Structures
1.
Amino acid sequence: MIVIMSRDSSEKEVNEILERLKGLGLSGHLSSGVERAVIGVVGKVYPELKDNLELMPGVEEVIPISRPYKLSSREFQPRDTIVKVGDVSIGGDELVVIAGPCAVETTEQVVSTAKAVKAAGATVFRGGAFKPSTSPYQFRGLGEDGLKMLSEARAETGLPLITEVLTPGDVDLIAKYADIIQVGARNMQNFILLDEVGRTRKPVMLKRGISATIQEWLLSAEYILAQGNRQVILCERGIRTFETYTRNTFDLSAIPIIEKLSHLPIIADPSHGTGKWYLVPPMALAAVAAGADGVMIEVHPNPDMALKDGAQSLTFENFQGLMSKIVLVAAAVGKKVRVPSKV
Amino acid sequence: MIVIMSRDSSEKEVNEILERLKGLGLSGHLSSGVERAVIGVVGKVYPELKDNLELMPGVEEVIPISRPYKLSSREFQPRDTIVKVGDVSIGGDELVVIAGPCAVETTEQVVSTAKAVKAAGATVFRGGAFKPSTSPYQFRGLGEDGLKMLSEARAETGLPLITEVLTPGDVDLIAKYADIIQVGARNMQNFILLDEVGRTRKPVMLKRGISATIQEWLLSAEYILAQGNRQVILCERGIRTFETYTRNTFDLSAIPIIEKLSHLPIIADPSHGTGKWYLVPPMALAAVAAGADGVMIEVHPNPDMALKDGAQSLTFENFQGLMSKIVLVAAAVGKKVRVPSKV
Amino acid sequence: MIVIMSRDSSEKEVNEILERLKGLGLSGHLSSGVERAVIGVVGKVYPELKDNLELMPGVEEVIPISRPYKLSSREFQPRDTIVKVGDVSIGGDELVVIAGPCAVETTEQVVSTAKAVKAAGATVFRGGAFKPSTSPYQFRGLGEDGLKMLSEARAETGLPLITEVLTPGDVDLIAKYADIIQVGARNMQNFILLDEVGRTRKPVMLKRGISATIQEWLLSAEYILAQGNRQVILCERGIRTFETYTRNTFDLSAIPIIEKLSHLPIIADPSHGTGKWYLVPPMALAAVAAGADGVMIEVHPNPDMALKDGAQSLTFENFQGLMSKIVLVAAAVGKKVRVPSKV
Amino acid sequence: MIVIMSRDSSEKEVNEILERLKGLGLSGHLSSGVERAVIGVVGKVYPELKDNLELMPGVEEVIPISRPYKLSSREFQPRDTIVKVGDVSIGGDELVVIAGPCAVETTEQVVSTAKAVKAAGATVFRGGAFKPSTSPYQFRGLGEDGLKMLSEARAETGLPLITEVLTPGDVDLIAKYADIIQVGARNMQNFILLDEVGRTRKPVMLKRGISATIQEWLLSAEYILAQGNRQVILCERGIRTFETYTRNTFDLSAIPIIEKLSHLPIIADPSHGTGKWYLVPPMALAAVAAGADGVMIEVHPNPDMALKDGAQSLTFENFQGLMSKIVLVAAAVGKKVRVPSKV
């Protein structure tokens, strides 16, 4: 932490800072040759110290020089985290394709979709039984019945299952059915929920909040890691900007940034990232080219009949078409895709 | 709902839309003289229909023409909602001033602050016992011990109490201590929590999410109202934009917009809205001039020792100075402020 | 400027930084007790040095500690700049009200509007003869004919005139007619235009760009000041955010921030700041309460017939109603308004 | 254009709208079965009509149903525009790579860079002689001397040249030296400049403004096209959002959106799009995978000595490494890259 004094600060004010630091068991190192007096804080600081020091007379600004996240940082763990789910590895040199409907509607819908996406090359199946909805009058999911339908789809195809948890009280229920627990964008800063999924020993996929900075996202991952659950997967799904043509602005630069700052795997979700089915294939390919560890794609047997997010869902045929291109782009950037024998 | 066909859509495509609507128990009214074919949908539509119809061939865009919120709208209830808490009325011609520390630290801190803000003219006391923190390594509040300290402050001063709930499992506990339950910005779309506070019969203050549109905010209020709790107060506290000088961009235009769209009272929180104590007084006055039903101000005996948000807290003296100006601006816009006898 | 080394930087890397600084005629002051090595740069740095040093091995981040604007800063000039236009002072204890139509349409329109706004208490008249339009198919203004009509309005009422310049080639023409030259939001970073208006000796009102930070805005003011024109007035008129209900998000916190950082006067434009006529009065009052040196309001005899921005224009009657409230709020915050004798 | 009446509008108010339309030579088609009265406007509307009608009593909202851009739309011209510059085609099945330094510094710098990027596979050379700078104290470019140096680079390598114009008065000068005229992000809504470059017969590359919607961008292209210059190339270079880790948020979804809405070629600039050199390669590959017609990359012999934007510039070696990957990804999505014989 560095304390920058204002240009007209007095020696007395500088001394008061040094005294305050001393009182906190820290010490200050004064550089006075620079444009203005600058105090380097030596010792272990706490986050709120910045606010407190900035209120002291003569202080212009306080700049933290350590990143506030630790367990999620590459400084802390240089080697990549690889999350294993059955025989699927997320975070290594294999590109993972997660696919399935936004919301579970019927057993037939999920089973047929699971079979279709498996045939096309997906290795994890997704589907929501508890759905966050902006309006109380929208479809909110089938609940545990939906989880049972998802289990049938897993039984039929062998694909591991990812599904979303909305609230701490449901974590045990979700953990009973899911192979990967998803924490959605709206819950990225639901800290009690993060604590709770951190206490399970299931892999957790943490989506980026629509207005979360990358640092805040890593701090939310830190909540899960701090509870002892090291199987965290990050998922970029678009941020909110002024542009209204797309539902969100899909921030693909988050992929190489996360790769630089953190050892955690990073998945891209172009379905939510764009909100329009015809933008999903180019943006899925872009995510692969940018180095994502995987993509998550919404697929529905009849998007124009879907109870949720039909506008961003691919048909079986479009998904198959996309997979054939993903294979080529993945190869171009040195990632392996598990190609199903019959495609 | 209006379906706008693309310029080159065929008669067959238009007929398919009309058939689809018929199958849903709706009907379509075709205007073909306009620049392109336009179908007005007659009957009660469901929100997902927009997505579904947009996927049909020949459709350019589907435009909803009803607002998705109902119970919170002024169309539904033209007269203002007035929330009563003890002898305080929120939403009428009295300007409510809510004040207190960000986080509860000690009994002495909350009691002395409650006395000071009451003496200066505040009519509701605020303080957080459960604190949302971006980092797991920051102070997260004193929990129920903090609630007990807040109760002492209420006992000493008679000021009703507002405090924040973070998770559905704590709603009963908070409701036991609080006169008004606060749902924070990060939880504005924690729908399970909204359901739960909607089931209590305590007034709820719902803060706007940092990336929430006004429509989404009203839809979140709708969750609470739909559970039968009609005592909802909205609170603007700043949105996230590109500007980094302030912690958030305090969107004061939300005040007259809410007044136009909804019957619910609207409070402004310049402390979170700006993040800097020296911006709080001018922005509090601005909120009053814009027509807010009240302001919520963070006050701390020693901001530079505060465990949370010291940078945005006023000292007792600064709060008193602000109150003397609030009285004048409130009078200028025709709002009453309860002036304590001894100031 | 402070150079923060990465945690694993070597002594050799630190020495290379020190050498590089020496080669530039600067020196470096090393603090090594802190969490990581930190080098304070002593001497006069150039802005691009930050980029250059950040590319050197072992460097984590380079943090500038001087603000990049000088002439516009309060550090440089502690006393307020007061811009005089005829007998109107902008930046002192008088609240200035600028009013008039968005675009000049006819002589009758501008003359009748000028008379009406003068009668209600406006002290500067506004009107656009050269209009920036998002689309080439929209109305782009009457050009010099419009300037002549504006001059007639001035002749009839004695109100000084503010009008917008769009391009360097028109600066002389505009300067011939205008008492204050307006540089619009879209041109805030049209640096050649800033140079050019900086070479005139007419007061310049510089609007904030819709995506400009406050620092960028002051740097644009710096362009004008650096040419020797010290009569610069800033104008907040809303920034672009995700919220779509308003045309822009009117950032009123800019008012006290500018007052803190700069000696230049600051005006607020709620007409562009909100884009809706019924939001203009509450936001104009809010701006006054926040400490603005003035407000600029669009007024039109028949807003629903206006060739431009009718949706945000007040009728004569609504403007008069607003003025009667502005007088009260201004008084509450200690600002004077020149009240016309006949109102 | 569709006029949506409010729920409680009267028959009289509907009739007044119909009369107003009639007076404008338009007609209205009333659908009254829908949730509320809706009037379809028949005939050729002007953009400002929306604002005007919205001010009439009983009107809730007016929705335009035609896109405001014409010449740039794919509806107007279904086949792709291919811009030819020497033997380079932009917009066809060839991927164009534009490379060079941000700013021209010396003849040696530009000539050596031009040779290096040509050797690696670039087909167009870039370099700035007139530079927009946020601060008046930053480097603003070498002016015409810089243009002469760029010409030498072209003479030595045969690469066509793209360089930026900042102001209408310089258009002729730039057109004399450049093969493609660049209009930068800050000038995207400098309408007088757009008119002026529209009057030349040189290809124009129009960068997206940092806060421009896609629709506004196409409307700016429309200015150039409307002057008769049909050789317009669009360039995505990042938009401003709340995320501060990157200089801008590189909006790659703009690539497939432009391809859908417009026939104009679209180039991606990951150097400005990210602002950090180590993010440039992954994002360049992502842009190619998303279907861009080309990429523009900043390359400098010594980025840590660059006078401008060194932080986002690649070294010769890094650029060569990137090119070898671009070739693979381009092939994967069916685009050709001209591979130099000696690489």
Note: Chain C has eleven helices and 14 strands.
2.
Amino acid sequence: MNMTDEISQKIESLGYTLPQVPAPIGSYLNCVRTGNQLHLSGGLPFVPEDKIQGVVPTVTSVEVAQMGAKLVVLNRLAVAKAELGSLDKITQVVSLSGFVNSASDFYDHPLVINAASDMLVEIFGDPGRHARIAVGVSALPLNASVEISMILEVED
Amino acid sequence: MNMTDEISQKIESLGYTLPQVPAPIGSYLNCVRTGNQLHLSGGLPFVPEDKIQGVVPTVTSVEVAQMGAKLVVLNRLAVAKAELGSLDKITQVVSLSGFVNSASDFYDHPLVINAASDMLVEIFGDPGRHARIAVGVSALPLNASVEISMILEVED
Amino acid sequence: MNMTDEISQKIESLGYTLPQVPAPIGSYLNCVRTGNQLHLSGGLPFVPEDKIQGVVPTVTSVEVAQMGAKLVVLNRLAVAKAELGSLDKITQVVSLSGFVNSASDFYDHPLVINAASDMLVEIFGDPGRHARIAVGVSALPLNASVEISMILEVED
């Protein structure tokens, strides 16, 4: 019996591509499952060809930071797929924590993190709708413009 | 059979009023339930008549930020009540994450967040006692002085 | 029947000592259990003889901040032991959130938090490997250099 993965097909049909699973930047795991929860580590907007770095909005524009937020969603889903076998096993995106590398007079963190939230709804439909924290921080690992972690609810 | 809501009565008897459920500031939900956990999004200290904004303690005093922390608790409980029907279904406040819009030489974040923690104990008694994170951040959405999220344990 | 605590013996054999359970700095609990999860409050790198305080790396070096991260792991495990009776009841470290009191041009937060992550693996082996968030923040309670919270999976 083959495992279905309609969500992966949906991602493709939307024109997105799941990247290779990124290596953790440090001595931790990309995700840990406990019961029906999959806790994903904070992901950064880095792909082999590009790193989205710098303070928003002075060094990195809101638009570029939004692209970064989408990159993180895709690399987090790559992590979940490697763990679960199929993204169809995700029954609900429970929560998303978004940290924006932020100038102290920048207040539009929700605009940046909306790009991630919207993408999750685009991909999963209603089960992609989640609780959320969005905050601005003074510095992120490797000068990333955004870091996003998630808790997913998954099938038994 | 009517659903009891002794906690809502307690809130009233303490002289507090639950506000209208605030609209999320972005494309996310105010809360998501998974199993016996209700994950509440980060709430801001905004009411229709007032917004508590600015850096603590240079723009906003500790005392005003504490009022803000209490406003957030009330709007988070309004969210929980809308979701659960009755606040009596909350069996335990599990954790609270408090982010304070903080000057870099301000170290009294616990004083600000204590206002939220104390209010939860005042309302719920022992089940209101929770694990907590309190940190200072360089900027918050819409220049809010404080953002608070919570995980609640709820009845089946 | 005595409760085993091989993990506590392992900690001793590694030359570490669990400190006294620290008092919470505010009106909250050191930890709350819900189902099979133990949520630990954010801990600070303070012992009676010493406090590791100040911005990394300008006031506090990466090396000292790493010592601080290890101190927090030990005081978090002291909290867990007081709650559970035995650290053998921990079946998995699920997630760790590390906040570094960070200069705005410091990008090596993972180096600081790795000290905590490595120590957990040293103590627990594979079940010590966890999902992780590491971010830099502009200020921490009592000017601590690092704050770390954790979610642990525990036996029934």
Note: The beta strands of chain A are 31-34, 37-43, 46-47, 50-51, 90-101, 131-137, 146-154.
